[in-house]
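Slide 14.
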Amino acid sequence: MMVSENIYSKPATLDEAIHLVSQYGANFKFIAGGTDIMANKYQGNDVTNHFIDITGIEALKGIKIEENYIVIGALTRLDDLKKSKEIKDEFPLLLEAANAVGSPIIRKTATLGGNVLCENRCIFYNQSEWWREAVGYCLKCSGNICIATGGKKACFSEFISDTAPALISMNAQVRLIEPEGERVIALEALYTGDGVNPKTINNTSILKEILLPLSQNYRGAFKKLRLRETLEFTSLTTAVSIDKHDNIRIVLAGVDPKPVLIEGKKGDDKEELIKKAIKGARAVENDMFSRSYRRDMIRVFLNNCFKQIDI
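Slide 15: predicted structure.
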């Protein structure tokens, strides 16, 4: 069924949402907090004419314990994470990351699922329609060139979620609901590394829950680079975690179209871990900070993280 008019739907259950997906085809988007989608729509970067509002679906809400995991509903507001004793006790790194997102007002609206799935950004793409038309359309908006690099093959729009690096560093998984059924995958498997199509899932998938393993005694550190707090998206986010088995996971955002994940063990050469992280970051000149400065700050941030958690 093709849709040309603007349509707003609000299903009460997951089954209703999946039914709407099959009814309206590809031209729709799920919306919850709307702090990312509506800004893109205002700028003309999102031309969706059908929004499916999932805020009334109770199955996407709440924080609970299931076996050896804490399960966080995708509709959990970022500001509400601090109300969970289990998250405070076992995953303080997630609280620090959530508190780095936007402003207090935004955190009372934005959801954890929305931040995990937020759209990649680039200073040449996230502009008004008239600005993009004047400078020339890029690969991410149906043009034929990456304005940042001059290349015609790859888009390097930046992965800018703050909570996803913290979650990935603590081995988070996600539960997806799709027309074909339900599946659980590692959170890092959601991201392709392609700036134009940065997710491995399509818009018919519903992110239901985020799962974090309990009793791992995670110690972590989080750093974020931005010009102005509460106003700017990240130019570099680093999250480092170490578990009770001395496994280290380093995750970067803001310097590549997907999260940069480096794994190691306590006792590994820290300089080698830093070199791997810098090498994995495909930062280009598409940010308010230069590529060289952001790459230099990876070293600074990671050294500070290592000192903070005594690695």
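Speaker note: The domain at 61-121+157-308 is CATH 3.30.465.10 (Uridine Diphospho-n-acetylenolpyruvylglucosamine Reductase; domain 3).
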